[in-house]
Amino acid sequence: MLYKKKWPLLVFLVPGLLFMVIFLYIPFLENIKNSFYDMPAVVKMPGTEWRFLGFENYKRLFTDPDVRTALINSVKMMVLTVIFEVGIAFVLAVMVSQVKRLQQLFRTVYFFPVVISATAIGLLFKLFYNYNGGMLNQILEFFGGEPVNWLSPELAFIMVCIPTLWSYIGFYFVILLTGVSDIPDDVYEAASIDGCNRLMQVFYITFPMMKPVFFTSVTLAVTGALKVFDLPWVMVPNGAPQGTTHFLGTYMYQQTFGLNNYDYGSTLAVLIVLLGILVSRGVGFLTEDKEERTARKEKRLREKAQRKGAS
Fold first, then answer.
1. DSSP for the chain?
2. What is the pLDDT of residues 223-250, one digit of tens each?
C-alpha cells in the first residue's frame, strides 16, 4: 500500500469535500427544487407561500423561442471552439515546439489574453465595433468605404464569437504545447532518418502520441462553450440585437436578474448543468481509445466473474 495511514488523507480530502457539498451540491439541489415553484423573490419571506408549478417551467423550455436561439448559438459556439480555439492552438503549439530559444516568449504572448478580464476584452471590442468612430469603421472610411453596423442582427453573432474565441486560444495553446514537449526528440530523429518530413511527423507522431491531451482540450472547450456569459453580456447585453446573440448563460442571467423570473432562471440553470454532463460524457465516449474501452470492459467482466465465484 502506498499510504499505510489513511487519516492524513482525510485531513486534506474532507475540507474540500465539505466545501463542494456546501457551495456546489446543496445549492444545485435547492435550484432543482426552486424550478418547480413560482418564486416571487429569491428568498422565501415569512408568511409567504410559493405556488407549486410542477413541470410548467420545463414545458415552457420547449415552447420558448429564445431558448431555441440560445441553444443553437451555444451549439454553434461548441463547434467553433473545437475548430478555432483547439485547432489554432494545436497548430501554434506544433510551430512553437520547433523554436527552442524564444519558446517562453511565445508562451507569454499567446497566454496573455487569458489573464485579461473578459469584461475588459468585451469593452475593448465594443469600442472597435462602434458605428460612430469605432476603429474598424475608421479604417474603412480611411480607405474610402462606408461605415458598417458590426453589431447588426446579421453580423452580431460572428462579431461576438471573434473575441470570445481569441481570448482562450492561449489557454489551450499552453496545454497542447506541454503535450508536444513531452514527446521524446529521439522519435522525431528516427522518423527523419526514415525520410518522414515535418508535416508527416505531425500526422503520424505528434497527434497520435498526444491524443489524451488533445481530447482533454476538446472536452474543456466544448463544456466551456456552454458557460459563455461575461464577454457577450458586456458587448451585447440582453441578447441584443433582437435576442439574436443569446447564449444559455446570458439568457439565464436575463431571466433571473433582469426580469426577476427566478423559478424560470433556475430551470434554465438545471438545463445548462444537464447539457454540460451529457456533452462531456458524449465527448469522452467519442474520443476514448477503443483499446482502453475494450480493456475496461474486460476488467468489468473479470470483476463480475470474481464476485460470482466468491458468492
1. ---S--HHHHHHHHHHHHHHIIIIIHHHHHHHHHTTEE-SSSS--TT--PEE-TTHHHHHHHH-HHHHHHHHHHHHHHHHIIIIIIHHHHHHHHHHHT-STTHHHHHHHHHHHHHS-HHHHHHHHHHHH-TTT-HHHHHHHHTT-----TTSTTTHHHHHHHHHHHHHHHHHHHHHHHHHHTS-HHHHHHHHHTT--HHHHIIIIIHHHTHHHHHHHHHHHHHHHTT--HHHHHHSGGGSSTTTT--HHHHHHIIIIIS--HHHHHHHHHHHHHHHHHHHHHHHHHHS-HHHHHHHHHHHHHHHHHHHHH-
2. 999 989 999 999 999 998 989 999 999 9
